[in-house]
Sequence to fold (256 residues):
Amino acid sequence: MKKLVMTSFLLIVLMAFSFQAFAITADEILDEMEAKSALNATQKSVGTMILTDEKGKEEKRELVMYAYDDSEDTENRAFIFRFLSPAEVRNVTMLSMEDGEQIYLFMPAFKKVRRIAGSGKKEKFAGTNISFEDLSGGYSKDDYDATLVGEDEENYLLDLVPADPDSDYSKLIMTVDKEKFYFKKIEFLDLEGNLWKVLEVQKVQEEEDGSVTILKMYFQDLKDNTTSLVEFESVEKGIDLPNNFFSVRTIQQPEI
Fold:
């Protein structure tokens, strides 16, 4: 009788655990993150990036970003990233379209646009420690095989395995805020499974519509011992942009 009671108790515990574990799936979490980020489809952000090299030397850059996000179709996701200063990188501009499938780099010194494809996405962008792959896309369920591996009172923990076989990463470990559905931290593991890079969100602003605007991010490359600190001083949402704004033609303009 005692054995029967104990067996029944264990079954109830296991069933309760299974129900809790599958209350939400990893794909549903990623979908919710995308829906939150697309509440304001267009956005302009102005800020700074502070680069620190392996010797501790710092360089400050000013930047502007324009972004478009479509919750109905991630293929329409696009953004423009441009440095405004110092002089040696002024107007160096990156364009990402179709959720990172098409990437272009404008180098004003050469007055030419370069298409970034294949292994080129692993290159670092304009002397930073951030690759085109790091910058190019979001975290859609179409781009990753996602698994919910843990949770606590405040966060979900996801394992994301890149769908792209040419990715530099074997896996990403993402910490997601349970209430606001934005990533707080992403750990990037190399192809041998070793921790390589860490991206941490250090400051956010909660909006009235329930979305979160990221204002400060810290990116570390543990192999190179370099860091990038990005902070936005001005963020405008729901702005009007001309048709075909996200184009190769736009990034060649001296002012955008």
In short: The chain has one domain: 28-251. Residues 2-21 form the longest helix (20 residues). The mean pLDDT is 89. Helices lie at 2-21, 26-37, 132-136, 248-251.
